[in-house]
Amino acid sequence: MSSSETQTVAPPETRQGIGVSPGTAYGPVVQVSPPVRPPRNEPAVDDQDAALSDIRAAFEAVAVSLEQRATLVDDTAQQILKATALMARDKGLVKASAKELAAGHGRATSIDLAIETFAAKFDALGGYFAERVADLRDVGSRAVAAVLGVPAPGVPAFTEPSVIVAEDLAPAETATLDRSRVIGIITEAGGRTSHTAILAAQMGIPAVVQLVGATSIPVGTAVALDGDSGEVTIAPDMELVSQQRERAARRSEALSHLSGAGATSDGHAVALLANIGGVEDAVSAGALDLEGVGLFRTEFVFLSATTAPTVQEQTEIYRGVFAPFGGRRVVVRTLDAGADKPLKFADLGPEENPALGRRGLRLSAEQPDLLDAQLEALGIAARETGADVRVMAPMVATAEEAAWFARRVRDNGLPKAGVMIEVPGAALRSRHVLEEVDFGSLGTNDLAQYTMAADRMQGALSDLLDPWQPAVLDVVAAACEGAAAVDRPIGVCGESAGDPLLALVLVGLGVSSLSMAPSKVPVVRLALSLHSVAECQTLAAAARAARTAGDALTAVRDAARSELTTLL
To answer: Are 217 and 193 in contact (CB under 8 A)?
Structure first.
C-alpha cells in the first residue's frame, strides 16, 4: 500500500469563541505577523543622545503612518487611528525610553521596556486605559521595527479570499483591511467591545474573538467560522461548508423581503437604529434602511483633539452628522470621557479606580464649560439641519444628575433630553431618574460590567460579561419597569441590541428601540417580524428564569420560531 493510501486526514475540529460580527466564512488562514521584538542581549548604545533622537524619530514615524492610514478609512476607524497616533506622540513614552537607555539598554529594548511599563499601568487602571493596551503595544512594535530598520508587523500580502487570524488585531490593521479579500477575522484575545469587534461589525466582516489556540492554526489551513454562534471549525468537511453556505443563502433570501420600520408580527413598533462615530459613519448609515441613529459617540470628536474643540468646530461636525438623516432621529451621547478616557484639556488628575471615577456626566459637572460648548454646538447644528436631535448624558446615577443635565439641554434650545442607564443604581431607580427627562437608553456593555463587577476589557471575564447573564437581564427589566411607570421610552444601544435572539428578549422586557452596527439591523428586523409582543414576553420570562447565561440562551433559542433559528 502506498504512503498516500495509508495517510490519514485529521478530522474536523470545532472550537468555541465569541461571535462579534454576524455571518459565516470559509477560506484559508492567513496569520498576521507577530509583533517585532528587540534582539536578544541588544548592546547598550554609545551615544545616548543620538539613540534618543532615533527613538523620538521612530515614534513620530509611527504617528505619521497611522495618520496616513486614517485618510483611507471610514469615520469610526479614522478617529481610532488618529487617537492611536496621538498615543505614539505621547512625550511620556520618549521619557520612559530615555530612562531605559540610561540603564544600559539598546534602542529597541528601551522602547519595548518603556511600552511595557505603560502597559502595566494601563492594565492596573482598567476601563478605557486597559482597552488601549493592545493599541499601545502595537505602537511600540512599530517603533521597534522602525529603529531596527525592518518591516512593521501586520497582515502579509495575499491574493485569494482568506480568514485573518491574529493574537489581537490592532486598529491600524483592522481599519485598513481589504474587504474584497478578508472574508473573516479570528482573534485569540479581544472581547465583545474590543476595537476588532467594533470595526469588524462596522465593516460587515464575520468575526470571532477569544478563540483559544487561534494563532497555532497553520497558515493555509481551511477554516469555517460563524460570527453569530462563535464556532470555528478547523479543516471542516465540505458537508459543513455546504450547510453554512445554504444557510447563508436562505438567510439572504429571507432578509431581502423585509424593509422599513422595525415591528413585531402583531405590529408593535420597535425602532431600528445605528451606532455611529462621526460624519463618514453618518453618511454611510444615512443611505441605509434605518430609522435613524440611536447612539452618536461624540467622544471621538474630543479624544483625537489636543485642545478643546471650539463651538464652531463642533457645529461643523454635528451638521455633517445630522444632514444625512433628514427628519429621522439622531440620538447624541454627550462627551463620555474622564479619568478613564483621558483628555489633555480636561485632566482631573489620577484616580485609583477610573471606571468608578469622574467620567461621563461626572466630568461634565466638574468641567461644565465643555458640556455647555457641546450643547450650544448641537443646538446650532440641529436648528440649521432641522434634524430630530435628542441628547443624552452618560454615566447618570441619580435623579438629581438627570435633572441638572435636562436643564442645561433645554437652556440650549434642544427639546429632548435623555440619560444613559448603565449604572445599576440608575436602573433600579429608573422611575425617578427618567421622570426628569424625556427618554432613556440602556448601555448594556457598561451595565453588565457594573452589575457583574467584571472589567469589560478583561477577556478572562468574558463569561461574566455575557449579556445573557440572568442577573443583567433582571437589571434591564427593572429599568424597563420604571420607564413604563412614568411613560418614558427606553432603548438599548449596547452590543446586545444587535443579537437577534437577545433583541426579542429586550423587546419582551419593554425596550422600544434597538441601536447597533448597521450590518446587524437586517437580521434583527427579521427576528422581530416573526414574533409577536406576547411571544417576546414569553421569551424574556424564559431567559430570566434560567440559572446561567448559557441556559438562558438555550431556552430562548429552543422557544423562538424555527424560521429564525434555522438561519442563525
So the answer is: no
